[in-house]
Amino acid sequence: MPGPLSHIRVLDLSRVLAGPWCTQNLADLGAEVIKVEKPGTGDDTRAWGPPYLKDGEGRDTGESAYYLSANRGKKSVTVDIAKSEGQRIVRLLARGCDVLVENYKVGGLVKYGLDYHDISRENRCLVYCSITGFGQDGPYAARAGYDFMIQGMGGLMSLTGERDDRPGGGPQKVGVAVADLMTGMYATVSILAALAHRDRTGHGQHIDLSLLDCQVAMLANQNMNYLTTGAAPSRQGNAHPNIVPYQAFATADGHLILAVGNDGQFRRFCELAGCPALADDARFASNRQRVGHREALIPLLEPVLRQRRTREWIGLLEPAGVPCGPINRLDEVFDDAQVRHRGLRIDVPHPAAGTVPLVASPMRFSATPVDHDRPPPLLGEHTEEVLRERLGMNPGEIARLRGQGVI
Asked: What gap in Å lies between CA 58 and CA 269, rounded to an integer?
């Protein structure tokens, strides 16, 4: 069965991560995604290596792992939008598309006639999504925005990392670019909502997404911890601000994440761990009490958890419904029985490497399953195909454009 968005065509003028993550989602859902890249260099992330994908003989293909992570399912077309002919090609492509995604600086596409105001006059049904660091307006609108600085500005790094009074304490970014990734996810949701609106009204619209907005919005309960008290939460390492015990503990051979979510789970843990008196202690009888007496409880639990190995704890607690788990390296993740069962690693045919290992989309549909048959494209791999099939250009015209450096 075709994907749920197989009737949708997307023009992707984005690069790096937030925009490409969004358009990769749309491609996973079956949309035709035409990725417009600069001739010769393409998406910035193509050069963000090593590591690079290797071919069957162990040679670098020039395809960076970073680029491969966010561009499966797309078609690559190289067009120089600094040239008037390139601008014309992009406008013609936009006429036949349902969605356009771009992440240029505010006003960066105006000089090319590719901004929302100009493009929408040619295609009033177009959903045009702009992704920037700080949004289309406001005192920071003209600034460039990058994930690391947004994690800091948006509050995430004030919450991430070990406590300041402990060894290694201080601000810490998350190990992947979560501000970019969450913005890409918000962009995906926004586009789908705008398409639903268009289906009812016939009108497209402009979507204004900001990394800073998304970073602030995703802080969830920590935002409300501040807004309801006026006290800014601080870094607590692996501990949870609202639930105790809900953190990583050292075991006899590693670490265990103990994620006790209610009082019944805490009592079962104490009984199985050989410390039932803790569940009867008035200081620890409810989660409210445990949060209030965190500094007393955790030192009592730490020597208990060190008595067994991680796998022993999991074998003891998991059957009793006490949430717990290991801290896996990525080699352990992809060797995990559940991850293998769910098929999260996929191997897709690749024109330069033979095959490329990728991570499957986590979206599962009963009637319109996600198809992973198209790998991340080589730079300009589909230029002639798209110009011929979408714009009706003949080989002579394509050769002329190539000779002029337009494509």
From this structure: 49
Tokens standing for residue 386:
């798209």
- Cα 118 to Cα 231: distance, rounded to the nearest angstrom: 46
Q: Which of 45, 40, 64, 343 is nearest to 180 (CA)?
A: 45
52-54 and 32-37: which strand pairing? unpaired
Query: Closest by alpha carbon to 212, among 137, 305, 280, 277?
Result: 137
**Cβ atoms of 163 and 237 closer than 8 Å:** yes
The CA-atom distances, in angstroms, between 361 and each of 71, 308, 394 are 12, 36, 36
Task: Identify the DSSP state of 162.
Answer: B
Q: What is the mean pLDDT of each run of 10 residues along the chain (407 residues)?
A: 95 98 98 98 95 93 96 98 97 98 96 96 96 97 95 96 90 96 98 98 98 98 96 93 95 96 96 96 96 96 97 96 96 96 96 96 94 94 97 96 96
Q: Where are the alpha helices (DSSP H) in 306-380?
A: 310-317, 330-335, 337-341
DSSP secondary structure letter of residue 375: P
Residues 6+ apart with CB under 8 A from 130: 102, 103, 104, 116, 136, 206, 207, 208, 209
Q: Which CATH class is domain 246-327?
A: alpha beta
Strand partners, 324: 258
Tokens of 40: 């010769």
Domain boundaries, the chain: 9-218+340-403, 246-327
43 neighbors 70 (Cβ within 8 angstroms)? no
Q: Residues with catalytic annotation?
A: 180
Using a 10 angstrom Cβ sphere, with 0-12 exposed, 13-18 middle and 19 or more buried, the burial of residue 398 is: middle
Which letter does DSSP use for residue 37 in this model? Answer: E
Written out in words, the top-level CATH class of the domain with range 9-218+340-403 is alpha beta
Same fold, 9-218+340-403 and 246-327: no
What tokens does 23 get?
């358009």
DSSP state of 132: E
What's the token pair of residue 68? 């491969």
Model pLDDT, residue 161: 94
Q: How far, in Å, CA of 171 to CA of 155, rounded?
A: 10
pLDDT digit string, tens, across residues 182-219: 999 999 999 999 999 999 999 999 999 999 999 999 99
> H or E element: which one contains 24?
helix 18-28
